[in-house]
Amino acid sequence: MKLFRGSSADSDQSVAAAQPRQRLTRRSSGLGELAKSLAAAEPLCVLDLGSTSAANIRYLTERGHKIYSEDLLEASSDPALATTDEHGAPILDSKVFLTDNLQFPAAQFDIALFWNLGDYMDESLVKPVIGRLWTMLKPGGVLLAFFHTREAGPDAPCYRFHIVGTDTLEMQPIEARGERKGLHLQRVFNNRHIENLFRDFASIKFFLARDNIREVLVVR
């Protein structure tokens, strides 16, 4: 697994933060597949784990579904989570993180939108978070996740995803603020790493997109 720890100069970040960031539009095969479930007549319970999106709330509630949102990237920037492992290496305390976040009953959700969190969260949180999501999804529940390929490069921007159609997303760059000085690609998962990450799930399906993104749809 390749790790990325690159960062831009503070002055460059300040200039970028002062300028408006244009949204990009992309087609999503994974979302298109998920849309078959969203078109169901019965209301579904959806968990959106990215930055809060009014577009997602509107899109899902207009179709009769219930949506819950948690910004796990924002939550993971809490300085109180910082600790060290048995070798003295810096990590984030996953037990404390899960005590304060993802506090939902078991088997509550039909769908979880994980987006690209696995690539930008601290590595010490990724597997524990996936494990918690497994318990929160209903049997047969579906999780959608995006992973960068190696060709994306360490400076691939982190986006907030807005659902604007059955297979269409708008991507809005996430601006640095507060304690969060910038979001940088932490690692690149290959197919074997992704399969291992979701090994407790019943099935996994890959979609390779043209923008160096590997979309993954997993079923609980």
Please summarize what this structure is.
With 220 residues, the chain is of the alpha/beta class.
The CATH topology is Rossmann fold
Shape: globular
What percent strand?
25-35%
Strand order of the largest sheet: 4-3-7-8-13-12
Number of strands: 13
Low-confidence stretches: 1-20
Q: What characteristics describe this protein?
A:
220 residues; alpha/beta; Rossmann fold; six-stranded mixed beta sheet; three-stranded antiparallel beta sheet; 13 strands; 29% helix; disordered N terminus
Task: Give your account of this protein's structure.
This protein has 220 residues and is α/β, with parallel strands linked by helices. It has a single domain, classed as 3-Layer(aba) Sandwich (Rossmann fold), CATH 3.40.50. The chain is 29% helix and 30% strand. The chain contains eight helices and 13 strands. It has helices at 10-18, 29-38, 54-61, 72-76, 94-100, 117-120, 123-136, 191-197; strands at residues 2-3, 24-27, 45-48, 66-69, 82-84, 90-92, 109-115, 137-148, 159-165, 168-173, 187-188, 203-208, 213-219. Strand 12 (203-208) and strand 13 (213-219) form a beta hairpin. Helix 5 (94-100) crosses helix 7. The protein starts with a strand and ends with a strand.
Give a topology summary:
Layout: E1 2-3, H1 10-18, E2 24-27, H2 29-38, E3 45-48, H3 54-61, E4 66-69, H4 72-76, E5 82-84, E6 90-92, H5 94-100, E7 109-115, H6 117-120, H7 123-136, E8 137-148, E9 159-165, E10 168-173, E11 187-188, H8 191-197, E12 203-208, E13 213-219
Parallel strand pairs: 3-4, 3-7, 7-8
Antiparallel strand pairs: 1-11, 2-10, 5-6, 8-13, 9-10, 12-13
Helix pairs in contact: 5-7
